[in-house]
Design the sequence.
């Protein structure tokens, strides 16, 4: 079962389940993932931990990439960058990811993370690699 199909059927596993991510849109090269941030996700200063922002953006970007994979292909993130623009203490966050360029093996994806008021709180980008044959075995 593909990752996106599993998500849309409510079969969320791993880090997405642990953190409570919800995919609300999944179409070719474009996904939206939502998340409810709370005090359990805080850093020592009380704001949302940067790693949680990264997890959210990575989930959205990875699933956007997965929408274009063929049967038997998997993928992996090989680079991720994020910029933080506003602190978040709690509330709903929406990560919207779009594939900017899809090559045969490598591609580039961007993601905007917005708060409940629609304000841009972080922006991320990622390079992903499609894995085929033995390289994707067991993934």
Sequence:
């Amino acid at each position: 079962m593909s990752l996106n199909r599993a998500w849309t059927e409510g079969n969320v596993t791993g880090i997405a389940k642990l953190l409570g991510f919800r995919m609300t849109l999944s179409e070719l090269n474009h996904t939206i993932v939502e998340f409810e941030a709370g005090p359990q996700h805080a850093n020592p200063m009380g704001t949302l931990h940067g790693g949680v922002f990264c997890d959210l953006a990575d989930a959205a970007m990875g699933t956007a990439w997965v929408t274009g994979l063929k049967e038997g292909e998997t993928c992996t993130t090989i680079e991720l960058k994020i910029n933080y623009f506003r602190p978040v203490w709690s509330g709903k966050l929406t990560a919207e990811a779009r594939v900017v360029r899809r090559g045969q093996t490598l591609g580039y994806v961007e993601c905007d993370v917005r708060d409940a008021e629609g304000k841009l709180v972080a922006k991320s980008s990622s390079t992903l690699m499609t894995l085929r044959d033995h390289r994707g075995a067991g993934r």
About this structure: The chain has a mean pLDDT of 90. DSSP finds three helices and six strands in the chain. The beta strands are 22-27, 30-37, 74-84, 91-102, 106-114, 120-131.
